[in-house]
Design brief:
Layout: H1 2-14, E1 33-43, E2 48-51, H2 56-70, E3 83-88, E4 98-102, E5 107-111, H3 114-127, E6 138-147, E7 153-159, H4 167-179, E8 184-188, E9 190-191, E10 194-195, H5 203-209, E11 211-212, E12 232-233, H6 238-249, E13 254-261, H7 266-271, H8 299-315, E14 320-324, H9 331-335, H10 337-345, H11 351-368, E15 372-376, E16 389-392, H12 397-404, E17 409-411, H13 414-417, H14 439-443, H15 454-457, E18 460-465, H16 475-482, H17 485-494, H18 502-518
Parallel strand pairs: 2-3, 3-5, 7-8, 7-18, 8-13, 13-14, 14-15, 15-16, 16-17, 17-18
Antiparallel strand pairs: 1-6, 4-5, 4-6, 9-10, 11-12
Helix pairs in contact: 2-3, 4-6
The chain binds ligand TNX.
Length: about 525
């Protein structure tokens, strides 16, 4: 730790004092190439903004940022001096790539897509002073940046079932993702402890499945459990869901809904007991963990799920629909006449093949609507659905198996991607689910397993940080668990592979803290200790 501190002090003092106080370029995720040139651009009263192409989302984003930062209207007419230009450039082949050239005269952003221009805007904002509203002068260093992402899929997940977060926070989370050039928000909407999306056809999901009878839950193998009898929960209305999707779209973020099946379904079964194999009246789960009440593979359940997915697909334009598939105990299926009958009729070997039958049937339905499924790596057991993308969480073996079978994979192993795990061994860390995932370990994550050939490696779409919220009750706590580890994840997802310099990264993280304060984002500070 002493060594890190020394190197930070050295980095702070080693730069020679420039004539004007420039923000030294410190961009996260690190661009593919960044060259600092002499001079700087100054944003003043006369600076204009020019959209030479139809880069609508990126242009609007930058315009509203600048209006807010400078507290003035922006003249958007073309001029050839003192202007920030968004310009189409067909030579930039990457669909999310861009160049930035800033000089004393102008700042030119070049890209062949709105997405590329949007990421250029994010880099440009990071070249501006963190506290831009209170800055007396707005200098931008003269630079040449050439950039494009390493992976197409750069995701963050949020579990809103175990604890619920309001729409304002969901937007703040999405904004933070956009700032770090992440492009997929995985919204974990249903689980045993609460169903959080309005489904008009099934009002009991709102009346019953969305609420549980305590705010205080312990893990299923902790004893005793403490309950406070206070009703806890809520759900997002379809109108709110639409609002979130539009907000994300304006930031080039796709929203992937997750509707869990056949396990993690206790809340839905509490609302409609006929969806389970026992028919018993049960409560929305009152503990954390894995539960035996899972969907029964009968026709009524399939109809229910298809109807739910109809409403979900109507709302979400995402090509991918996540259908869970994880942690589904087969206990009830073993003794259920219905489940055993389906096994027999379809010539299945066991309950694992039945789960596979279940998932494949749902996949067929989703494919018939022009969408594709993502499932957790348990969907490999009993036979993988033909067009599924596997989200590998229990390690990387699932990803290897899936890629070798020609399937796309997304890497989210607990070892490097679980932001619900502790990030430091300090005694005063707030209670977390367990595990240990320090910043450096996230930073050193290599998402391409060595076992894959170069061709198979192409099937790794990208990476994702997961935020399960059993022990994360407030939005401040979500932020604390996510920052700074999301910085490392964004860099794994975006920046070129090859030599990584953790201390250099940490100095950029330090620089970012001021920006987080301005954005009112809570973060874990000084948790840069080396692994082990
Ligand atoms: C496992 S990851 C789960 C979640 C828990 C998480 C806690 C996965 C597909 N299932 O239900 O919240 O562990 O880390």
């Amino acid at each position: 730790r002493f060594l890190i501190l020394c190197s930070l002090i050295l980095t702070l003092f080693s730069c020679s004092e420039p004539q004007v106080k420039l923000t030294s370029p410190s961009i996260i995720p690190a661009p593919q190439s960044l060259q600092v040139n002499p001079g700087h651009f100054t944003i003043n009263e006369e600076t204009t903004l020019s959209n030479n192409d139809d880069f609508t989302a990126s242009y609007n984003f930058l315009l509203s940022f600048l209006k807010d930062a400078t507290d003035r209207d922006w003249d958007t007419k073309y001029s050839d001096n003192n202007v920030i230009i968004l310009e189409y450039d067909s030579s930039i082949i990457s669909k999310e790539g861009y160049n930035i050239i800033s000089t004393d005269r102008n700042i030119t952003i070049k890209s062949s897509t709105d997405a590329g221009a949007f990421y250029a805007v994010q880099s440009l904002i990071q070249l501006m002073p963190a506290d831009i509203k209170n800055a007396t002068e707005i200098y931008i260093p003269a630079v040449t940046i050439k950039d494009e992402p390493r992976f197409n899929y750069r995701g963050m997940h949020l579990d809103v079932s175990r604890h619920m977060f309001d729409v304002d926070f969901i937007k703040k989370y999405i904004d933070a993702m956009a700032m770090l050039k992440m492009n997929n928000f995985h919204w974990h909407l249903t689980d045993d402890q609460g169903w959080r999306i309005e489904i008009k056809k099934y009002p009991k999901l709102q009346e019953i499945a969305a609420y549980r009878d305590s705010t205080l839950l312990g893990h299923y193998n902790d004893t005793p459990h403490q309950y406070d009898g206070k009703r806890y929960g809520g759900y997002y209305t379809q109108e709110e869901v639409r609002e979130v999707i539009a907000f994300a779209k304006a930031r080039h973020i796709n929203v992937i809904p997750e509707i869990e099946m056949p396990g993690h379904a206790q809340a839905a079964i509490a609302a409609y007991p006929e969806l389970g194999c026992t028919g018993n009246n049960i409560d929305v789960a009152m503990k954390w963990g894995v539960f035996e009440d899972i969907y029964c593979p009968n026709e009524a359940t399939f109809t229910f799920l298809e109807n739910v997915l109809d409403e979900v697909m109507e709302l979400f334009p995402s090509k991918y629909i996540h259908i869970g598939g994880d942690e589904a105990p087969k206990t009830q299926w073993k003794t259920s006449n219905v489940a055993q009958k389906v096994i027999k009729e379809n010539g299945l070997k066991d309950e694992y093949e039945l789960q596979s039958y279940f998932i494949q049937r749902m996949e067929k339905y989703i494919n018939s609507k022009g969408r594709q499924i993502i499932g957790w790596d348990e969907i490999l057991e009993g036979g993988l659905a033909p067009n599924a993308t596997v989200m590998s969480w229990r390690g990387v073996e699932g990803a290897i198996e899936a890629a070798k079978a020609g399937h796309d994979v997304i890497m989210t192993p607990t070892s490097h991607c679980y932001f619900d795990y502790y990030q430091s061994e300090n005694d005063d860390e707030p209670l977390a689910i367990g595990g240990f995932l320090p910043l450096e370990k996230v930073y050193n994550f290599n998402p391409i397993p060595e076992e894959l050939t170069a061709e198979e490696a192409q099937l790794v779409l990208g990476v994702q940080g997961n935020v399960w919220t059993e022990y994360i009750k407030t939005s401040e706590q979500v932020e604390y668990m996510v920052f700074p580890r999301i910085f490392a994840m964004s860099e794994v997802a975006w920046s070129p592979s090859g030599e990584r310099d953790y201390l250099e990264f940490v100095s950029r993280v330090e620089n970012f803290n001021k920006r987080l304060q301005v954005l009112n984002i809570n973060y874990a500070n000084h948790l840069y200790e080396l692994e082990g």
